[in-house]
Amino acid sequence: MSFINPVKRGYLALETWFNISFGHQWNPLYNLGTLTFFFFWIILISGLYLFIFFDSTLMGAYSSVEYMTNEQWYAAGVMRSLHRYASDAAIITILLHMFREFALDRYRGFRWFSWVTGVPTLWFVVTLGITGYWLVWDELALYVAILSSQLMDGLPLLPGTMSRNFLAEQINDRFFTLMAFLHLLGQPVILVFALWFHVKRLSGVSIMAPRGLAIGTFVALVILSLIAPAVSHDPADVTQTPAILNIDWFYLNIYPLLDYWTAGQVWMLTIGISVFLMLMPWLPKKKQDEVARVFLDHCNGCEQCAKDCPFDAITVQKRTDGARWENEVVVHDNLCASCGICVGSCPSSNPFRHSEQSLITGIDMPNSPINDVRDQVDAEIERVNKSSSDSDNKIIVFGCDNALDFKGLESSNTGIIKYYCVGMIPPTMVEYALKKGADGVFITGCRTGDCYFRHGNQWMDERFDGDRKPILRKRAERARINVFRAVETECKELKAELDRFQQKLSSMQKETESVDSDLVESDIVESNIIESDIVENKNGEA
Ligand code: HEM
Ligand code: SF4
Ligand code: SF4
User: Fold this and answer.
1) Site residues for ligand 3, CB cut-off 6 Å
2) Is the pLDDT of residue 163 over 90?
3) Is 377 domain-assigned?
4) What is the pLDDT of residues 499-539, one digit of tens each?
5) pLDDT 10s digits, 485-494
6) How much distance in Å is there from the Cα of 427 to the middle of ligand 3?
7) Could you say which DSSP state residue 36 is in?
8) Which atom of ligand 2 is nearest the CA belonging to 335?
């Protein structure tokens, strides 16, 4: 097994454990982005409800929040708690989402854009939470207001002006209303824009968490809101220092640092961490394979590749080569992740085409063209035919590069073909391997719900189920095709699954042989009957 760094190994073990507890579909670790969106929905809806009762003036804010918490605890109070806890939960899922991308090395190379644009979204979410605490206008809000002013004054823009307001007790309604405006409208709009930018280079992004996971999470938040409702501190009083402050460590964690450091130092730390995070994709840079190329002579403009590309790297335009088709496709090199999924989408990738010549398809990977893949299938089938006995089952393994280490699987009766992603396998290639003499085809790839190239797994399933073009035709015997999904640490499980598949093929072979021999025997019996009939007939005639 190749070396897997301990962070990745640990993280994969955690995901395995979550898979056992929640199943692939509802595994929260596979849905951290959509779960964060789900929390944003809760924050938005509860926030709109709270806004009905909230008084956005300095004098009325605290009492309006108290009214909601105590008088209307069953509705606005629960909404307030949901608003608070969903916000905290969002920070947890964002940090986990970020850690996951890092641990699984999904932040470099073509993913640099999503990573770099993710960092500011974290800032926008945290500052949104900070202005939220400000609006309650209790002792914690005052603490946040004073320390935020210190921080602002630490910037070379308007030195000293903000905290002077507080010292002179000049915090006025206008400033408070500005905070309300920022929290209720300005910051959410910026966040929505930042999130749109964050996922701009991805296609088919879901912002809805799976239903079961969403319901379970919501119920947990409601229970938490009822057991431990969010409450305020005493009202803000600029003349008094609060004795106890319950800091929200998810949002306000940098404020206690100001007890020890100057505002300038805190800025240096936070900006330093952010710049470092944004530079991470290049420390060191990840090497990427050559990007996909279009071969117009073999493209009929069906657009399937553009529909399937997980990174929005293919666009459709009017035909430029005078061919009779209406459209053609163009690959944008800067967006292409070299996943090869488009090759699996293209109807021209059919290996039964041009069997005597090179197979050229509509869109191909320069470093692993479909013609080479077909040649490898031919070569591996020839090798296993030569090196194994007639009674052995010959298996062709199509293995995705990013999931399991399947080098050890090669044997006298098992041939291995490497792919960028399972989505790169045209279903016809599976048929081809079976037609050419393989007894079984074994496909390995990333775990369900966690394709390295986002949609490869899903497209393959849909193609095999006949729900997505190009489909796996009915004539391909499903019992001879085995799909196994796992991660790098699960090599033993892979071997065990391959052995099970071998056994299944052997028992299928035995069944076929016994059916064949039954057929032969019944043929003999039948022919005896016919012969005896003839004899009888002859005798009768005689
Ligand atoms: C405000 C919070 C955030 C939300 C709601 C969010 C949501 C999402 C969503 C929905 C995706 C698409 C996942 C997919 O469909 O494959 C995504 C991708 C990604 N996010 Fe975030 N994200 C957030 C913050 C961050 C942060 C802070 C980082 C890291 C600095 C980050 C790094 C990434 C990366 C690298 C991807 C690309 C994943 C891929 O290409 O497979 N995100 N995010
Ligand atoms: S290789 Fe992948 S990312 Fe590039 S164009 Fe094809 S499907 Fe899109
Ligand atoms: S899938 Fe193939 S034929 Fe269809 S548009 Fe893409 S390159 Fe052309």
Assistant:
1) 294, 299-305, 329, 345-348, 362-363
2) no
3) yes
4) 999 999 999 988 877 665 555 455 444 444 444 443 344 44
5) 998 888 889 9
6) 15
7) H
8) 3
Q: Which residue matches tokens 């990745």?
A: 8
In a domain, residue 288? The reply is: no
Tens of pLDDT, residues 87-106 = 999 999 999 999 999 999 99
CB 195 less than 6 A from any atom of ligand 1: yes
Cα separation, 474 vs 492, whole angstroms? 32
Domain region containing 494: 293-506
Domains of the chain: total: 2
Q: CA angle, corner 387, sides to 384 and 391, nearest 5?
A: 80
Written as one string, the DSSP assignment of 472-529 is: PPTTS-GGGEEEEE--TT-HHHHHHHHHHHHHHHHHHHHHHHHHHHHHHHHHHHHHHH
SS3 at position 451: strand
Q: Provide the mean pLDDT of the chain.
A: 90
Determine the length of the chain: 542
How confident is the model at residue 160, as a pLDDT? Answer: 60
Q: Which ligand is located closest to the Cα atom of residue 350?
A: 3
d(CA 131, CA 184): 9
Q: Are residues 207 and 160 in the same domain?
A: yes
Q: Are residues 213 and 73 in the same domain?
A: yes
DSSP conformation class of 420: S
Give the binding-site residues of ligand 2, using a 6 Å CB cut-off: 291-292, 309, 311, 313-314, 331, 336-342
Does the Cβ of 36 fall within 6 Å of ligand 1?
yes
